[in-house]
Design a protein that fits this description.
Structural class: alpha/beta
Number of helices: 12
CATH topology of the largest domain: Rossmann fold
Distance between the termini: 91 Å
Strand order of the largest sheet: 2-3-4-1-5
Largest sheet: 5 strands, parallel
Amino acid sequence: MAPKTPPSDAVKQIHYLAAALKAPRITEAAARLADQARDAGWTHEDYLAAVLEREVSARNASGAAQRIRWAGFPARKTLDDFDWDQQPAARQQVTALASGAFLTEARNVVLLGPPGTGKTHLATALGVTAAHHGHRVMFATAVDWVARLTEAHRHGKLPAELARLRRYGLIIIDEVGYLPFEQDAANLVFQLVSSRYEHASLILTSNLPFSSWGGVFGDQAVAAAMIDRIVHHADVLTLKGASYRLRNRGIDTLPSVRAGIDQPEA
């Protein structure tokens, strides 16, 4: 076997510079593309652009994976996984949202509909897409958001926490309306919504129409002010149909959640 050719000074320099830039993939890309560049007669600029493109693509993929891990999604869902046959009317609007334009415009997305119609799936999938677009994302249920904000408020750090959350391009509030909130909790959610108004995007999912949110938040005025800020710059999608979880179970409908909120105790 012929002895290996020692690396040239130029290759050594590439190794050194790639390490200094904390971009070790440049070394691999430079070596892999060198022969291709010579054979195809690339210019120096073409070769440099190709090497840097590989590095940027790898960094974006790595960064997106990290942002997805840190987002707190209950499971990783994509738009390709969604059963569009059950929600055909929403497909065009959701596909447009997947471009990410709503994030650059600090617009919100609201997904309304009965349980099991795909609201959380779509919210998660749009969050995953946002992470691929380079945005930081945080997902939690409405109850978990209240717990987080209550803890910050208890320690006198609510303004700092709201300021920190504004640095996230997208916050997802799942399951608004599944449990009613006390007044203090409702005020905390209102502050979260207000702090992001025209600054950064929200995605909210709810099993209730806006007309029932007063019962959820225990105050019609707070609910109205919150809804006003949410929908001022928002895309509102209403999903319909029966729960996919109940398919082939012999159950056509679920009990009304709204009835449990609106009816007074006996």
